[in-house]
Amino acid sequence: MNANRTRYHVGMNEIGFDPVYRVECLGDLDAARVWLTADIDNTSKKAAERAEFDTYLGKLARTPDAAIVGEHTIYAYTFWVRVLVDCGCPCKCAATGKECNGEHNREAADEPKLAEPDEQGRSAFEFDGTNYSVYNTAAKPADGYWAVERVITDASSLSRREDILIGQKTRDSAFALAVDKLRPTRLITFLPRIHNSITDDEESREANAHPTTDREGWTCAWSSEGYAVVFENGVERGIAWPGRPIEASVNGADGRPHDLDGEWTCHEQAVAAVRAHVLDSPA
Length: 283
Prior knowledge:
The protein is an alpha+beta fold. 23% of the residues lie in helices and 30% in strands. It has helices at residues 29-44, 51-61, 93-96, 171-182, 202-209, 267-280, and strands spanning 6-14, 24-26, 70-74, 77-85, 106-107, 123-127, 130-136, 146-153, 159-168, 189-190, 218-222, 228-232, 235-241, 247-251, 257-259. The strands form three sheets. It has a six-stranded mixed beta sheet, with helices on one face. The chain has a five-stranded antiparallel beta sheet with strand order 3-4-1-2-5, with helices on one face. Helix 1 runs antiparallel to helix 2. The longest helix is centred in the N-terminal third of the chain and has 16 residues, at 29-44. 20% of the residues are buried. The model has no long low-confidence stretch (mean pLDDT 88).
C-alpha cells in the first residue's frame, strides 16, 4: 500500500454520542499518537476522577505505534485511531494560498448521514457541502424505484435538481451507492459526460470518442461511447469500462492494457481503483 494513500483519523466521543470536538486527519502514526494523547489528557482534566486516565496515558506511552490503532475506552469515553485509505479529506491550502504537500494535518471530513424522510418521503444528506436527496419515483414506494438527486441552489435561492443515480430497490441502497459514487470526487476531477450531437462534425466525434486532457492532477474524462478514461497530469493511465460487471484496465509499462481484478459498484469506484493501482505500483 502506498503510504501517501493512508491517513489516520483520530477523535473521541462520549459513549452513545457523536463526536463533539474536531476529528483530525493525520498522515502518520507519530502524529496520531500525539493527537490521541492530547485528547485523553485534555479530557482527563475535566473528569472527576483522573486515576484511570493517568494509568492509560502511561500504558499508551509504552504501546508500539501499530498497536494504538483501534478504540480505547476510559470511563464513559471512547478515544480512537482509524486507518483510512484515500479518505480525501479536503485541506484548506487552496483557500489560504499555501502550497500543499499532501501530508499536513487537516480536519477529517464528516461522514454523510441520511436524515429521516420528510413529509414528501425525501431523505436528505450532505456531502462536502453539497445537498442531496434520496426519493422514490412513485407515490407508493412499492410502485417505483429509489433515486438520488443533487440539490443546487443559485444566488436567487431557487433550487434545481439533477439526478446522480436511479433505479435502486431501497432507500438505503440508493444512499450507499450515492456515497460510493461521491467519495472518489475528493481525489479525482470528474469532467462532465460527453454526448454527441447531430450537428457535430466528424473531427468532433472522433475527439469525443476517446478524450484527452492537459489538466494537472488526477482527472476522469468520459468518452461519448460510455467509457471513462483516467489521466494523471494529462497522461492516460487506464480506462473504466461500462457493463455488468463494470471492468477496469490500466496501461502497462509495455504499452498494453492490463485488466484489473475487482468488483465495483459504479464507474467512479473503478476509476479510483485505476488511480490506486498506479500509485501502488513500483515506479
